[in-house]
Amino acid sequence: MERGKRRLRRKVLYQQKMKKAAHLLLFRQHRKAGMWGWELRRIIGAEYPKVIDLLNEYLSKLDLKVNVIPSEESEEARSNLDKARFFVTIKSELTPAEAKMCGWRIDDLAALGIVVAYIISRQGKASRSEVEKILKSKLPEWKVSGNINRYINLGYISEDEHGNLYLDWRAKVEIDQKSLVNLLLSA
To answer: Between vectors from CA 155 to CA 145 and to CA 60, what angle results, nearest 5°?
Structure first.
């Protein structure tokens, strides 16, 4: 009897922690979406990886998933969840109507696709001036700089001090790069 009560209390505790984790991950707290692992550890407790796994199972039914982005590409950083970033994305692809409801115009999405594809085709690095030149041939000139700055602010691309653009954390997680390249090659 006592064992059943403990199991029930533990289940309720994990449900409460899962609810708290969902609140933290679904509602933007910082400039970037999601939370760092150390923040989750501080708020939820040391068992936050287990709570995140349970939350991921639950969100899977809603066509969502929790992504984990290591702070660096090294093997040591991948195993250290405290230094990783956790955030929720959609598992399947968005339809154009769904993308529009998320605040994206179709031409902005197309421009993002062009930027990402061009950076991929340049082995992960392209100069901003080259990207702007390509976008100016497809979009009104006044939109080009604003779009690139928006993609930088949203975390899809990053820019170094020399004016080179790179794929950033969000592009690596939200964009299926292999499918994008295959679509472009098949067109």
So the answer is: 135
